[in-house]
Design a protein that fits this description.
By secondary structure, the chain is mainly beta. The protein contains 11 helices and 38 strands. Strands 16-17-19-20-21-29-28-24-23 form a 9-stranded antiparallel sheet. Strands 2, 3, 4, 7, 8 and 9 form a 6-stranded antiparallel sheet that branches. The chain has a 6-stranded mixed sheet with strand order 11-10-15-14-13-12. It is globular, with a radius of gyration of 24 Å. About 6% of the residues have low confidence. The structure holds MU-OXO-diiron and calcium ion (2 copies). The site of one calcium ion has 6 residues, from loops.
């Protein structure tokens, strides 16, 4: 993910569940547990559906937990080792120089691995050169490259503004940026590192995983790559109207994908890449009065403009890419003021072309495609429910900003297993037409999916924003979810589906005290507290993981049951905060990446944290979950100082069964300043691919000094590539005895 703007742009009046509790008589009885949906459970051979007994545990989590670490290295359990597959700046073709790690590249990075390795998916190449659903000796590793927060490392002396170098721009834009260098090279390196890299990988003669320079599968999709727009046929013309820019005055296509965070793996074998904090890249100068009121409202709800457009200050910032040229639209596109006579003459609509799920065929050069029916927001990741032949597919998605929502897309088409390997045509079949829902979590442990449709008078008649049509609902899905009363969550990050029982898990990474105080909790976001040793954060600084089971296990369900799988906490935080009973072997904070191994059924949890980093770097943990409802109803005793006064309040919620050290263990701790994100595996479960993003993130700008003082030297200090600057990288974890990871 990389650390977030997490600006509070959800000003809707959607209620917190404290209001619900105050209004309704909530039953104190525990929910009726067990039974429901279990008939639909299909056990994996190696994992009992409901967590199993201790025998299963001993078979599964066989490694010794690693302790907390603040070392500048990757720490793994005894018996495990790692190699590095590729890192920021590595070349995809031999016709350009190997990466210097000095910021001296003169190419535009369009043929290099991007920065900020994030979500990752693994696709086997079949004998016909196309997708194979079963293991072969060749694969494409498809990887997101998220943010430009470390773009100062791409240049010899940091970033340059108004002729002054040594700068470090925020991922989320700086106010009143001066002009970037007119030759455009700095800006192009920064623009092109975003997006997705696709590289061929395989084992060399010695059995070591490597990527192949010059493979015909190697490909970059970046923030300039042409994109196709799809939407339901009945609404396509109206959707295109939102996409009209000087680049394509028909609105049928757009350019580029940005801030690609988590990924998705479709049942037919393509990659989904998710556009998260795209709003931060645009420049909205003060007094952009040519932009109409509805677009203004949209820009503000999505965080592109952070102040009224008529304000006297700059209202949106960006990276200054728009300053490079007044005529070259590779640069002018980042200025979203209404400088032309109409939307077709400028880039006022450019922000409407970002915020989507984008499908990429990892084996073909088909045009990457934006799936508008899946909604526009700060897409974190996308995960499919278990496909059932003859039934629609469900895809679950989080909107990662403070107080945003969880969404579900349900395909109109029923799943046909013959579509496996169908590439983009299969994507057109399943992801063009469908229904979009937002989640409402009730205080009684149930939930509802609220369809975002103009057929709902709450949307069609929404007073805050006058929706014109269903296209407007897709493009402004956040506002539609406001209108129907979805539940504001503590920053929804990745989702994952338990292959053993089809239950859906979502990480809620954390929230600030501006949003969670003891008076502003609800059953699904029940904690409000201050960091127990007073070092870092208050609100819900350590986050939690929620899970839910669809009614009858159906993709089309409009109801579900939920509980909270785990609460992040420091192990010494006290029982009112450390609700999951974490210990030194498994304490964690700010869960972000989340993924189930198909080989072992292990639920892997990755952290991107700023609240526990005084004691430990970010980490990867293995968990063996049970199922929704295996725990109990509890009352959280919240206590926090708000505006100088201590506030206490009780909040009822539902928590899963405690896992203990037998079923939850820390597996990896990452180098300084990094987060752990993106995870996939070889089909045999013997190689785990894990991304280490932004080591050394807190390295300061050079400023007036002559050189960086690096927070991290990884992976150079681990023997990979030129030493010096830290680089994001993919590691391949194996067992020294060649066994299955974690089992
Ligand atoms: Fe890109 Fe929300 O992490
Ligand atoms: Ca993330
Ligand atoms: Ca602390």
């Amino acid at each position: 993910m990389a650390h977030h703007p997490t600006q509070d742009v959800n000003t809707s009046a959607n209620e917190h569940f404290s209001d619900v509790l105050a209004r309704a008589q909530i039953s104190r009885r525990s929910l009726i547990r067990g039974g429901i949906g279990l008939a639909a459970v299909s056990s994996l051979p190696m994992l009992a559906a409901c967590g199993g007994g201790d025998d299963d545990v001993e078979k599964k989590l066989s490694f010794t937990a690693v302790g907390k670490s603040i070392a500048d290295s990757v720490v793994l359990p005894a018996g495990y080792t790692f190699t590095i597959l590729h890192a920021t700046g590595d070349r995809l073709v031999s016709s350009i120089p190997a990466y210097s790690n000095l910021g001296t590249e003169t190419d535009d990075w369009s043929q290099r691995v991007g920065d900020h390795h994030d979500g990752v998916e693994f696709f086997y190449i079949g004998s016909n050169g196309r997708y194979s659903a079963t293991e072969t000796s060749r694969a494409v590793l498809a990887m997101n490259h998220e943010s430009s927060a470390d773009a100062h490392f791409f240049h010899a002396k940091g970033q340059t503004s108004n002729g002054v170098n040594g700068k470090k721009f925020s991922q989320f834009g700086d106010w009143d940026l001066g002009a970037r260098p007119a030759d455009g090279l700095e800006a192009l390196k920064e623009i092109n590192h975003h997006g997705v890299s696709l590289v061929e990988v395989g084992k060399n003669a010695a059995g070591k995983w490597e990527y192949k320079v010059d493979s015909t599968y190697n490909r970059r999709v970046n923030a300039q790559t042409p994109m196709r727009i799809t939407a339901p046929a009945a609404h396509l013309a109206a959707v295109k109207a939102f996409m009209v820019t000087a680049y394509d005055t028909t609105g049928a296509s757009s350019r580029g994908t940005l801030n690609n965070c988590g990924t998705g793996y479709t049942p037919w074998g393509t990659m989904l890449t998710c556009e998260e904090n795209w709003a931060a890249y645009f420049h909205m100068p003060k007094g952009s009065t040519g932009v109409d009121a509805k677009l203004t409202a949209s820009l503000q709800r999505y965080g592109v403009a952070r102040a009224p457009l008529a304000d006297t200050a700059t209202v949106g910032s960006g990276q200054g890419w728009h300053t490079v040229s007044t005529t070259d639209n590779r640069f002018t596109r980042w200025n979203n003021s209404a400088v032309g006579a109409s939307a077709a003459a400028d880039f006022r609509n450019e922000p409407n072309t970002f915020g989507y799920i984008v499908e990429i065929d990892p084996m073909a050069t088909t045009t990457p495609t934006k799936r508008v029916a899946m909604g526009r927001f700060a897409h974190e990741a996308a995960v499919f429910g278990k496909p059932v032949v003859g039934k629609p597919l469900a895809c679950y998605m989080g909107d990662d900003s403070r107080g945003e929502y969880i969404y579900k897309f349900v395909s109109a088409a029923n799943w046909d297993a013959n579509d496996v390997g169908g590439g983009m045509a299969a994507g057109d079949k399943y992801l063009t037409e469908g229904k979009l829902y937002a989640a409402k979590f009730n205080a009684d442990g149930t939930g509802q999916w609220l369809e975002l449709t103009m057929a709902d008078p709450k949307i069609a008649g929404y007073a805050t924003y006058a929706f014109a049509n269903q296209a407007d609902v897709f493009v402004n899905a956040r506002i539609a979810a406001d209108a129907v009363g979805a539940t504001k969550m503590d920053r929804p990050e990745w989702g994952a589906v338990n292959p053993a029982n089809g239950e859906i898990y979502m990480t809620l990474t954390n929230n600030s005290s501006a949003n969670r105080t003891p008076g502003k909790t609800d059953a699904a976001n029940p904690r409000a507290y201050a960091d127990n040793d007073g070092k870092k954060g208050s609100g819900n600084p350590n986050g939690h993981i929620i899970r839910f089971r669809e009614t009858d296990g159906a993709s089309t369900a409009t109801g579900f049951k939920w509980d909270i799988f785990l609460f992040g906490a420091e192990e010494d935080a006290g029982a009112s905060i450390n609700l999951s009973g974490l210990t030194a072997s498994n304490s964690f904070s700010s869960p972000d990446g989340l993924w189930f191994s198909k080989a072992t059924g292990i639920c892997w949890i990755q952290t991107d944290d700023g609240a526990y980093t005084d004691e430990t770097n970010c980490m990867l943990l293995a968990a063996l979950p049970g199922s929704v409802g295996d725990g109990s109803k509890i009352t959280v005793e919240n206590k926090m100082t708000v505006s100088g006064a201590e506030v206490t309040a009780k909040q009822d919620t539902f928590i899963g069964a405690a896992l203990g050290e037998a079923k939850l263990r820390r597996f990896l701790v990452a180098p300084k300043g990094s987060e752990v994100t993106g995870i996939t595996e070889s089909a045999d479960g013997k190689a785990l691919f894990v991304n280490i993003q932004h080591p050394g993130e807190e390295t300061a700008a050079i400023g007036t000094a002559s050189a960086f003082t690096f927070q991290s030297q990884w992976p150079g200090n681990a023997g990979y590539g030129p030493t010096g600057r830290p680089r994001s990288a993919t590691i391949v974890i194996t067992r020294t005895d060649g066994g299955v990871i974690g089992a």
